[in-house]
Each structure stands twice: as C-alpha cells, then as structure tokens.
Amino acid sequence: MSIGSAGFDTQLDYVVKGLIPAHSLCSIYGPSGSYKSFLAGSWACHIATGKDWGEHRVAHGSVMYVVGEGGIGVPRRIKAWEIVHGQEANNLYLVNTPIFPAAPMEIKEMAIAAKQVEAETGKPVRLIILDTLARCFGGSDENDAKDMGAFVRGCDELKKQTGATILVIHHSGKDESKGARGSSAFRAALDAEFKINRECDGNALVIACTKMKDAEEPEAKAYDLRVVELFTDSDGELVTSLIVVDKPREPKEEDLIIGAVSNKTDNHTALWQCIRSRTSLKDPCTIALIRDDMKSMGIDIKHFRRWLVKLENEGLVRVDGNDLHPVIKDNT
What we know:
CATH superfamily of the largest domain: P-loop containing nucleotide triphosphate hydrolases
CATH topology of the largest domain: Rossmann fold
Number of domains: 2
Number of helices: 9
CATH architecture of the largest domain: 3-Layer(aba) Sandwich
Helix content: 25-40%
Number of strands: 13
C-alpha cells in the first residue's frame, strides 16, 4: 500500500521517450501503404543503436522484429537505415516467421530466444515488434472479444517474461473513423496507440497519437521519407528502399481535407493519396494508372468505381474523361 500522493514524482521508463513507454503494450495502425512498417523499422534501428529518434531519446537495447509481413523488404529497410546513418544495427534480430501469442508454447520459445539475444548482445531486449496482428493471430477471429483477449493475454505474458515492450502493427478498419479493425478489447488493453497515414502527396507519413494511457498525448507530426540506393541486381536494375527521416514537422493542411470526409474507408484515403501523389509530381494521373497504383499496394480494387464516385460527389476529385484531378478546397 501507499498513502495519498506518495510516488507522484516517479518518472516513467521509456523505450522511445514521449512515444513508447517501457514494459508496455503498444500499437501503430493505419491503412495499407501508410508506411507503418517503415516507422516500426526506424524505431527499431534507433533503439538497437542507441541513437536518438528525432527529438526523442531512446533506451539503448536489443530489438526483436517478428516479420509476419514484409519478407525481404524488412532487411532492405534496415540496410537503407545503416547506409544513411553509417552504423550497423547489430542488436536488431529478425524472427522470420509469425508467432502466435495465444499459444503458450510460442511465448515460451520467444522468451528463450530473447534470453539468447540478450546473451549475444549484452543488451536487454527493449522492444518486440509483431508485424502484423493479423499474421500473428493464427486462425482466430479478430472481431471476437474472446479470441482478442487470448491474444492480449499472450502479449502480456511475453512482456512479463522478457521485460520488453510489445509493439503490434495493425490495420485500420473498413471505416477509418472508427480506428483499428477488430475487437475493441485490443485498444482497451493498450498503453499507447498511434494512427499512421500517408501525407497528401504520398512522400511522408503522419503520426497521430490516439491513446496515451499515463502521459500527455503528443501532437500529430509529419515525417518525410527518403529513397536510398541499395545495390544493382543481376539484371542491371537499381534496387532501392525508403527510410523515415526523423525530423518532425507540421502535417500539410491538405491532409485535413480527406480527414473531413464522412464515412470514408482506408480505400477512399488511399485513392485520394494516390491521386495527390501523382499530380504533385506532375505525373500522368488516369483512372487506369491509379487503379494500377492501388493494386500494387495490395488493395482489392473491386469497388474502385464506387470509391471514386464518392470522392467526386464530395467535391474532392474532378473526373475529366479518363483523367483525374484533385480539387483542393480553400479552408481559410
């Protein structure tokens, strides 16, 4: 027991100060193609090397990244970070298969692996990233509170056995305004949650805090993305990746336009961002090209025409034959 305000000046431990608390369960979520995994990889590299992330100090330690999605993309993102920062992220370990927190044996195996990582690096495991919730959920139902409860309990047990913060990468629901998809039991269990979106021109991401349990929510900030050349493949083609430039700035006002649309989904947002990205670069912007862009992002475009009609009816897009033009409203 304690009395009254005793302990009021206890400082919260952190993994990334002001963003990711220590010994916590956290999540970043957003639509497909919003650069969620790039952000998680950036945090991982900074923690593994002890390098401040922008204005935020980090707790130097080891990181375990469960690569349920991304495949070869994850090590390429890490290499891009190493090239830009001139450091090797040797304390960052990739687990190249999904794990299922609801299965006690898998938690036990991850805890053993964490001890091995700590022994090899001499650094405690500060962060375990699960990419994504869907891939680490097995055959269970994300919308079922009982199944989600089992997932959360597994994450809590993993946190307890390793002392690490668990960061879950998750997807938005069909109605973006209602947050991450699946049972609300997940969000209720989180210590911190962040919504990630591509900025209007597609060349940056925006981080908006949607929950911070024991501290003040940080303001939404935008972070630019930088293309990094990695190597030339056997066909003579240049292979590149992206890194997050950890210098915060204010999000562009145009992001408020799509944010004001009622009953929008991730697909409406992705469509708007694809159109804005092409037109900002003065690239051709036709219906066929935008459809291809969305397909390349892994989006099922079965209802593409319906999404386009909604944006047109909302006055955000002008359709001129096969050409698409964004309509930028004056909010002043």
